[in-house]
Structure formats: structure tokens, C-alpha cells
Amino acid sequence: MLMDKPQRGFWCECWTQDVNDETGRPALRASFDAYSAPQADRWVAVALRTISPALDPDASDEAWAWLYDGRNDTRRALLRMEPCTVSLTHASTRITWTIRPVVYLPMAHRQGVELPACAYDFTPRPTD
Which domain of life does this protein belong to (predicted)? Predict the structure, then answer.
């Protein structure tokens, strides 16, 4: 999305973590930039509806509880620009969606503009 001024929105992430691994760090699985509260909570809702058939019964119940009841609370919090978290545990995997209010800054347009000298100092590293 092209912007010419800062714009409020939400940064959404999905993380997983093995609950049995005490030293295991969460792994980022997906991220999404949303520009409205409905768009942010819809991202989580679509993910939950998509994976719910594959979840164990308890995790599926958690997912549908959020979809029917918790989603309204999440939407209200997002409209107040408050961060939100939705989590459930399937087998030994904890899945967590986070939604945080952010301000997206416009990027400098690079066409037709002389780049600063430091731009030419960057050399990409070779891939293995």
C-alpha cells in the first residue's frame, strides 16, 4: 500500500511454541499488516476457521469459543487501539496470534531521486 503520510494500523503475528521444550523459543510462522481493526481480527478468524478441523477437540473448542464470544472483545479492544492476543494449545504446540497497534510510516520513493552515497556501500552477502 502506497502512503504519503503516517497511517495507523495493526501488526499481526502468528507464533508457535512446543510447550514441552523448556528451552525452545517461539517460532514466527506468519505476519500481516492490517489497516483496520476488522481486517486484523478477520486475519485471526480466517486462520482459526482454516485450522479448526485439524485441531484436537479441546483446541477446537478454544478456537470456536473465541470465534463466537472472544472475537467481539478483541474487536472492541482493537478499536480502542489496545494490543490483543489469541492463544490455544493443540497437542504440545501453543499457537499464539498477536495484534498490536502501530503507525506505518511512508517509505521514501526511490525513483528519480539521487540516492545517498552510503546506498552504494552495501554489498549483498552471497547465499550458501
Answer: Bacteria
